[in-house]
Amino acid sequence: MSSVAVLTQERFNEHRSGLLTEQSGGGGAGGEEEALPTYKDAFPPLPEKAASPEGSQETANAWTSKLRPLKSSVITQVFHVPLEERKYKDINQFGEGDQAKVCVDIMHKTGAHLELSMAKDQGLSIMVSGKLDAVMKARKEIVSRLQTQASSTVAIPKEHHRYVIGKNGEKLQELELRTATKIQIPRPDDLSNQIKISGTKEGLEKAKHEILLISAEQDKRAVERVSIDKVYHPFITGASNKLVLEMMAETGARINVPPPSVNKTEIVITGEKEQVALAVAMIKKIHEEKKKNTTTIAVEVKKSQHKYVIGPKGNTLQEILEKTGVSVEIPPSDSTLETVILRGEPDRLGQALTEVYAKANSYSISTVSAPSWLHRFIIGKKGQNLAKITQLMPKVHIEFTEGEDRITLEGPTKDLQMVQVEIEAMVLDLGNRMDYTEISVDPKFHRHLIGKGGANINRIKELHKVTVRIPPDNEKSTLIRIEGDPQGVQDARKELLELASRMENERTKDLLIEQRFHRAIIGQKGEKIKEVRDKFPEVIINFPDPAQKSNIVQLRGPHTEVEKCHKFMEKMAAEMLENGYTLLVPIFKQFHKNIIGKGGANIKKIREETNTKIDLPAENSNSEMIVITGKRPACEAARTRILAIQKELANITELEVSIPSKLHNSLIGSKGRFVRSIMEECGGVHIHFPTEGSGVDKVTIRGPAEEVEKAKQQLLALAEEKQIKSHTAELRAKPEYHKFLIGKGGGNIRKVRDSTGARIIFPTADDEDQELITVVGTEEAVKEATKELEELIRSLDNVVEDTMSVDPKHHRYFVARRGQVLRDIADEYGGVMVSFPRTGSQSEKVTLKGAKDCVEAAKKRMQEIIEDLDAQVTIECVITQRFHRSIMGPKGSRIQQITKDHNVQIKFPDREDPNAPPPPPPAPAPPAEAVIQENGEVPDGEVKVEPPVVDPAAPKKCDVIVISGRKERCEAAVEALKALVPVTTEVEVPFDLHRYIIGQKGSGIRKMMDEFEVNIQVPSPELQCDIISITGLANHLDRAREGLLERVKELQLEQEDRALRSFKLTITVDPKYHPKIIGRKGAVITTIRTEHDVNIQFPEKNDENLDQISIMGYEPNAIAARDAIKALVDELEEMVSEEITLDSRVHARIIGGRGKGIRKIMEEFKVDLKFPQSGSPDPNLVTVTGRPELVDEAIDHLLNLEEEYLGDVAEKEDNQTYLRSSGGGSASSGDEPRGPSKGFVVREAPWTTGTEKAPDMSSSEDFPSFGAPVAAKASPWGPKRF
Questions:
Q1: Quick one: pLDDT at residue 1242?
Q2: How confident is the model at residue 28 (pLDDT cuts 50, 70, 90)?
Q3: DSSP 50
Q4: Helices (DSSP H) in 190-258: which residue ranges?
Q5: How far apart are CA 1086 and CA 614, in angstroms?
Q6: pLDDT tens-digit readout, 112-171
Q7: DSSP 86
Q8: What percent of the chain has pLDDT over 70?
Q9: What's the confidence (pLDDT) of residue 528?
Q10: What is the mean pLDDT of residues 764-788?
C-alpha cells in the first residue's frame, strides 16, 4: 500500500518542543521511546482505493498508475435517412438547392463536417465528423431539418417530470441530443402529465423508452422528511459528519441534514423505500436516546472569545464533540448574548466545560503603544522585520491601524507575550534612533521639489538617509513630513526649505512664438525640446494646448536661467521664421509626376540642393499648387528650377505685365471671380498677382504661348477700362438659364461682349450665390450689356409649349439610360422639358415646354440628332478579344473618351467562355424519306437539303466590336480604337538580373508598369530565357524600353559594387580577447563595423579555428578595420591583471544596485573588475585588469571603499547583537547549546519492522529536488516503463 506523509508546521513545532523538553529533562530511554510518535500517527495513510470489478487491489498511486491511452477528440458517425422520410426528394437537385443550403448552415452552426451520398434505394447517407458535442448537435439539426417529423405523447406521473428535466435542464438536453428529438414537458402550473415528443420514428421510440425508464426508476424511490429539534442535529451528524456518513454507507440512503447556519429542523432522507425506512428508524432512535439521556448547562464566555471556541471552520466544536460527545451551542455572531450552552450526558459535561474554557483562554488580545509614524519602520521594507517575528510565532496576528498610535496583537497567550516584548523593544529602539519633523511648503512648489522623475527628492533621501512624504495634489496640504535619523532629518529639512525659498524667488516669463512653429520646436517625440531642457535644466518650459491656438510659451525658473533660455528660444523662433517663408507655385497637373521624377529623384535633388521643403498636392486633389517652404532666396531658387522643368516639357511661356498695384484688387474681383474667369477663358493659364501691400506692379502670366498672349490682352483691356472709368452692374437669372445665355462654346455671350465691349462674369460652382451675374466695363458698355441680357432672360421667362414629330423608332434613343439625352438637352437649353408619348403607343407627337428661344433651340438640336440617327450606320471593327480590356482602359475611360469625341455608340462582344465545348459539326442532310414524313406529303420535285457553308476565314464573334453612328464618325472611331491596340516588343536582359527587376513580391516590375503604362512579361525561371516582353501602346513602348535598359545598367553597377564589397580577409586573435573586442552589448565591434563599413564575423563556439576573425567589405575598408582590431589587441596585450583581497561583506556595496557602482568604477579608472562567484574557494579575491598605472589607482580606490564600508558593517553587527540580547528576555534557556539533533524520529516505521530499507536522507533518488532530474535505479529487467 502506498501513502503520502504530510507533516504540518504545528505538528513539527510540537514534536520539536517535545524533543527539547526530553533532552533538557534527561529522561530514560524508555520514556523517550514512548514519547515518540508512531509512523502511522506522523504519516497517516490515504484511504484505500475501492476494489475494482475484477477484484484487483491496485493502489491509485501517481508513481505506479498507468497512463490512459489518448483518444482522438474527433469522431465520425453515419446517419441514414430513408427515401420515404426525406424532406427534400428532388433527385435532380442532389448537391444543390435547399438541401445543400441546409447542410452548409448546419456546418456553420455546429462546427461539424458533413458529407452527403445517395444510396441505391434513394435514401440519404450523411457522414458527420467533428467533436462529440458538435456531432450530436449536427445529428439533431439533420433530423429536424432534413427528415420528416412525427410526434407522439407519453404519460408519466407529474412528480417524475423534474427527473426527466434534470439539474438546470441538463438531463433533458442530453436526452434530446441522444435521441435527436424535441421533447416538450408541461409547465409546473399545467396539470397535464402528457410529455410531447417530436422527431423521427426511430427517435420517438428511443425517447419514449428512456422517459419510461426514468419514471420506472423513480417509482422505486422514496423521500422521507423527519422533523428533529435543531439542538439534536450534531448528535445525528456526529463529529465532522462521521456518524451520518456511516449511516448513509450502512443503509444506502441519502441523508440531508441542514447546516448549523440554516434554521431548519427538517432532515430529508431519499433512496429506495427499504433504505429510507431503515435510515429513518436509525435517526429516530438516536434522537430518542439523546432526548432521554442528555442535559444542558449554560456558561458565560466573553463574546470576543467565542471565535476561539468555534475554531477555524468550526473545527474546535467538532473536536469537543468527538472527544466528549457533548454539543456546544454558540449564539449567532450578530447576537449580543455571551451565554454558551453545553448539551450532553451528565458525566461528560464537566470534561467538555474544561475544554471550552481551555479553548476560550488559549488566545488573548493585547496592545502596544507606538506612534503611527513608526509603524512602517516596525514593519520594515517589504515586511522583513515583521516576517522575522511571524515566522517564529505564526499563530500571533499583528494588526496596524492607520492613524492610531497603537499596535494590536492577538494569539496564543504565551506566544503573544513574547511577541509583545519584541515589538516593545523595537518601538523603544526606533524611538531613540529615529526622529521626524514637518515643514510647510506651498503645494504649487511640491512637484518642483520632487523634480523630474523624482530626481530631486530621491537625491535628498539617499544623501540624508531619510524618508520624505509629500502629500498628493488632491489632498491640497502644505505639510511635508521628514522621518529618519535625527541629524539626517534636520539636514533634509534645511535643504528642502532652501529649495522652497529659491522657488519662491523664481521668475515666470512669457515668450511669443507663432503656434505654427510649436511642433517644430518640440520635435518628433519631443527630441528637440528635450535638448533645450537639458541645456537649461532649472527652467520649466510650458507650451499651450494646440486647441487654444495661443502663441504664448511660458518659461519659469531662476531669473538668470529664464533670461538665458528666453534669448535662446527667441533665436530659435527667429531662425524658424526666416526658414518658414512660403511660396505657392502653380504647375499644370499633368507635369507633377515629372517634377517628382523617377523614384522621387528630381524633387529630392531640388530639396537637398536648395534646402527647402516642397509639398505637392495629392493625386486625387484638383489643386495645381506646389508649396515651397524655407528661406526666401532658397524658395525662389527652388521655384525657378521647378518652372524650368515645366518649361522644358511643354510650350509654356511666362510673361510679366505691368499694371498699377492700386488696380490689382479690382482686377482680381470678389474671391478671385474676375481673374478666374480670364484664366478659364484662356485655356487654364496661371495669373499671379504680387502680395497685397507690396507696391509691386508686375503681374505674371504663365501658360501656352497663344493663351498667355490672349490673357495679356484681356487683362490689359480690363485694366484700361478700370483706369478710364470702371463700372459694375449685377443682375440675376436662374442657374438653368446660364448655359443657354453662354451658348455652345460661349457663342452667345461672346456676341454680347463683342457688341457692347463689357465683360460678363457668371458664378462658378464654388460661389454661394448661383443666380448672380456680374457685368464689368464702362458705364455705357455695362448698360447695353445689361439691357441685352435682361431681354434674353425675359424671353427665357416667357414659357411656351410646342410640339414636334419624332418617328417612334427613335424614341428609345432619347429616353434610354434614364433619359440622359433629354437631361443633356435640358441643361444646355435653359431647362426645357421634353415629354415623349408612353411606351407602346405609336404616337409621333413630342411636347417641349420652356422659354421660347430655348424651345426653338432644343427643337433644332433634336432635329439634328434625328438626322444623325437616320444617317446612322453600323460598322464592325475586328480586334482580338485579349486586347479588349486594354482598349477599354481603367473603368472604361478610354472607350468613353472615344464615344464622346466621335459621337458614336460602341458595343463590345461578350467574353468567350474558355471552358465552353466546341460547336457541334453541321448535321448531315436527312434522307428524302425523312422529309416526306415531316411534311406529311410528297413534294413534286426532288428534295435537296444542303449543309450551311462555314467560312474558315470569318472572324470570331467574340472579336467583333460594333460601332454605330454617322459613317465618317464611325470610321474615325475605328482608327482611334485600332490606335489603342497594344503592340509587343522584346528586350534582351541577362537572366541573372530578372529577379532584381521583378523586385520583392513583384514591387519593382509593378512600379515600372505603372510608370510607363505598359505590361512587362518576365519569362519563368525554368525557361532560363533572357528575353523580356513589353506590351503596350506604341507611343509608350520606347519610354518603357529605355527605362528597362536604364534599370539593367543600374543593376549591373550594383553587381560590380557587390563584387568589390565581397573582399574577405581573416585575422588571428587569441579568443580571450574576443569579448573585449566585441565590447559591452557589442558597442566596440559595432563602432568598428560602422566606421569602416565592413561586416565582421567571430567564430562560433564549436568552430575549429576559434582564433580566426573574418572581415568582409571593400578592400581598403577591410584592411583599415583589420588594423583597428590589431591596435585594440596590442592595447589589450599591454594590460595586466592583479588580484587583491577585499572583504566579501562589502562586495555588494561596491557592486551597487544593478551593478551601478562597479560600472562607475570601471568607467572612471578604465579597468575591468571581476568579483568571485558564490562557492569560490576564496570569496574575498577580486581581480583588477587594465593598464598598470590605472590598475594601481583602481586598487587604492577599492581598498579605501573597503575600509569605509567595513566600519558600517561592524556598526551594523553591533546593533544586531544588541537587538538579540535585548529581545531574548528571560528565555535564556533557548540560547543554551544543544546536542546534535537526531532529526525527526518515529516508532514502528516499515524499515524497522520488515525487510524494507530506511530512506537515505542524502539521496537525491529518495528525496529529489524540485525540477532536478532523477537517475533511474538500475534493474536487471531494464528501465521501468510508466
A1: 67
A2: very low
A3: P
A4: 201-219, 233-237, 242-251
A5: 36
A6: 988 888 777 777 888 889 988 888 888 888 877 877 777 888 888 887 888 888 888 888
A7: B
A8: 83
A9: 84
A10: 79
CA dist 321 and 618 (Å) reads 89
Q: How far apart are alpha carbons 901 and 436 in whole angstroms?
A: 95
Note whether 155 and 194 are within 8 A (CB): yes
1063, amino acid identity? F
CA distance 673 to 761: 8
Contact 647, 595 (CB under 8 A): no
Tell me which amino acid residue 326 is: V
pLDDT of residue 1148: 87
Per the CB < 8 A criterion, the answer to whether 1066 and 1110 are in contact is yes
Q: How many residues comprise the chain? A: 1282
Strands (E), 325-456: 327-329, 339-344, 363-369, 397-400, 406-412, 435-440
Higher pLDDT: 95 or 41? It is 41
C-alpha cell at 419: 511577541
Cα end-to-end distance, the chain, whole Å? 18
**Nearest-CA neighbor of 1109 among 1067, 1075, 1063?**
1067
CA dihedral 1083, 1086, 1091, 1097 (to 10 degrees): 140
Report the distance separating Cα 9 and Cα 832, nearest Å. 104
Give pLDDT, residue 1234. Answer: 46
| Pairwise CA distance, residues 200 & 206, whole Å | 10
DSSP bridge pairs for 730: 774
Rounded to the nearest integer, the mean pLDDT of the chain is 78
Contact status, residue 396 vs residue 410, Cβ threshold 8 Å: yes
Q: Over the stretch 655-675, which tens digit does the pLDDT of each residue have? A: 888 887 767 766 777 667 777
CA pair distance 180, 198, nearest whole angstrom: 9
d(CA 759, CA 674): 9
E-state strands within 170-324? 181-184, 194-199, 221-227, 254-256, 266-272, 295-300
425: DSSP letter: H
Element housing 675 (H / E): helix 673-681
Q: Of all helices (H) and strands (E), which one includes residue 468?
A: strand 466-469
Cα gap 351→301, rounded to integer Å: 16
pLDDT digits 0-9 by tens, 1120-1140:
998 888 888 888 888 888 888
380 Cα distance to chain centroid: 41
pLDDT in tens, 62-84: 444 444 444 557 888 887 777 77
Distances (CA, A) of 662 to 668, 690, 759, 844, 1108: 11, 12, 20, 63, 82
Angle (nearest 5°) at CA 251 between 248 and 252? 65
Count of CB atoms situated within 10 Å of the CB of 537: 12
Using alpha carbons, list the distances in angstroms from residue 724 to 74, 604, 720, 778, 779.
Answer: 97, 49, 6, 8, 10
